[in-house]
Amino acid sequence: MSKHAKNSERNFHPLSAPDFLPLPRLRDLQFQRLKATVQRAYDRVALFRQRMEERDLTPRDVQSLDDLAKLPFTGKNDLRDTYPFGLFASPMREIVRLHASSGTTGKPIVVAYTQEDVQVWTNVMLRSLAACGLHEGDIIQNAYGYGLFTGGLGAHYGAEALGATVIPISGGNTPRQLMVMKDFGVTAICCTPSYFLHLIDQAPEAGIQFKDLPLRAGIFGAEPWTEAMRRRIEADSGIKAYDIYGLSEIVGPGVAMECECQAGPHIFEDYFYPEILHLKTGKPCADGEEGELVLTTLGKQAMPMIRYRTRDITALASETCECGRTLRRIKRIGRRADDMFIIRGINVYPSQVETALLKVEGALPHYQIVLTREEDLDVMEVQVEVTPEVFNDTVGALEALRLKLTKSLETIVGVRAKVRLVQPRTIQRSEGKAKRVIDQRKM
Ligand code: DLL
Questions:
Q1: Residues 334 and 416 in one domain
Q2: Are residues 181 and 324 part of one domain?
Q3: 164/235 same-domain check
Q4: Which of 7, 61, 115, 263 is 20 to 30 A off residue 107, Cα-Cα?
Q5: Quick one: pLDDT at residue 346?
């Protein structure tokens, strides 16, 4: 069988059955779980009860899935304001795990799991890995960070439950990652897309040709990335790159995952109920229309989340996927409402910059955006690495490339940026989430 044999040529994992539930059964299951979740939060989480009372609502007002729209939202600030354990719905003796996500404003956000929550998480991660064609016998290098970050342990439990062999290497130590990948016959890797690019970059030095390795799949997430980036990764490494989405507040990785059709992540809707709300009006978006993803957990015990505002911008796709899953898909999350920066009045997202850069041959997918202010005017400088061939080319050729990039940015982003071409490997690499924007205007 080729290294990219289709899942359909194998049996699906039995635990993936909920991916294919007929819609009426799925909706009924969601409704039953929603009622139980709302009741649990109402009985056990003071903040939620208070917000329900302010609206004259009780759990009995949830008579259908549509009634979800009446319920109050939860936001990141609620987690901060009740730090560390204020939103827990289980006593500590029932909580078997805590994780935390580092916020930009000091204190982290703490999330909790009961034994049952860990099982649900394991289940959705197993289904995530199965969805992209992994199975027993696969050797999975898990380069997501182990620790308070949910990536490492989340993927770990799912991979083990699948029956695959998991290598808990965690992030960092690139030479060792490459050695293990080759020597252990790794068939799939879990890490951020930016870190995988770094591995591709470093492979020649380690005497490794990705295309000669049995590696066939990458489970990439935890940060925004673009279709252009996917194409680069696949072309440069010969693997298939799949998008996995999740956030600590909801569970960690495994909220949504792409199947082999690579047509956007399927949400594991039997446990996470999605709404997409218009960014300005807050009204529900039509299918395909972009807005903020709002998620409700269906079944979380330790920390039920009702209508959590993710700040992630996406659209829902309800049409059936070729894989046969009835789970709706989200469009790749290219941007977060709070990643946006404004430059001379124009809203810009880093993913637009990425798309513009990768359209131009000679530019590498390593870039950083530096924002400064000169004489009261915002200046956006885009530093981008170029291939060694280009870098050693004539001054004229470099200048031509710089102009092409400037033009591409102007067309796609709508801003005239200063483009600075830099040598390969000069932009700082991250072992986890890449830092794309350095805003020096606030200092
Ligand atoms: O990043 C969980 C995770 C680990 C997901 C490993 C996937 C793989 P947090 O650290 O809480 O959790 O960050 C969550 O990261 O709200 C998104 O803004 C962003 N994010 C996560 N996955 C994707 C993705 C983990 N596939 C925040 N595409 C989320 C775009 C993503 N953004």
A1: no
A2: yes
A3: yes
A4: 115
A5: 86
Q: In this structure, are residues 373 and 441 in contact, taking their beta carbons and an 8 Å threshold?
A: yes
pLDDT recorded at residue 353: 95
Residue 38's domain spans which residues? 1-338
Using most ligand atoms within 8 A of CB, pick from 149, 245, 310 the residue to mutate for ligand 1.
245
Together in a domain, 253 and 348: no
- Span from the CA of 109 to the centroid of ligand 1 (angstroms): 14
pLDDT per residue as tens digits for the range 98-144: 999 876 567 899 999 999 999 999 999 999 999 999 999 999 999 99
In the listed set 338, 353, 385, which residue is the last one of a domain according to the structure?
Answer: 338
Are 234 and 160 within one domain? yes
- Mean pLDDT score of the chain, rounded to an integer? 94
Ligand 1 center from residue 294 Cα (angstroms): 14
Confidence of residue 10 (pLDDT cuts 50, 70, 90): low
Question: What is the distance in A from the centroid of ligand 1 to the CA of 67?
Answer: 28
**Confidence band, pLDDT 50/70/90 cuts, at residue 441:** confident
**Residue 249 Cα: closest atom of ligand 1:** 11
In this prediction, residue 102 carries a pLDDT of: 75
Out of 129, 312, 335, mutate this one to test ligand 1's pocket (max ligand atoms within 8 Å of CB): namely: 312
In this prediction the pTM is: 0.93
Which of 223, 309, 340, when mutated, tests ligand 1's pocket best, judged by the most ligand atoms within 8 Å of its CB?
223
Distance CA 111, CA 302 (A): 8
pLDDT of 283 > 60? The answer is yes
Beta strands 346-348 and 341-343, pairing class: antiparallel
pLDDT value, residue 396: 92
The DSSP annotation for 110-158 comes to EEEEEHHHHHHHHHHHHHHHHHTT--TT-EEEE-SPPSSSHHHHHHHHH
CATH number assigned to the domain comprising residue 394: 3.30.300.30
How many structural domains is the chain composed of?
A: 2
Residues 95 and 185 in one domain: yes
One domain, residues 283 and 145:
yes
- C-alpha distances out from residue 211 to 214, 215, 239, 308, 388, Å: 8, 8, 8, 41, 21
Pairing of strands 335-336, 316-317: unpaired
Q: Report the pLDDT value the prediction gives residue 49, as an integer from 0 to 100.
A: 98
Lining residues, ligand 1, CB within 6 Å = 101, 144, 150-151, 221-224, 243-248, 252-253, 310, 312, 333, 336
User: Distance from the CA of 192 to the center of ligand 1, in angstroms?
Assistant: 9
Strands 95-101 and 109-114: antiparallel
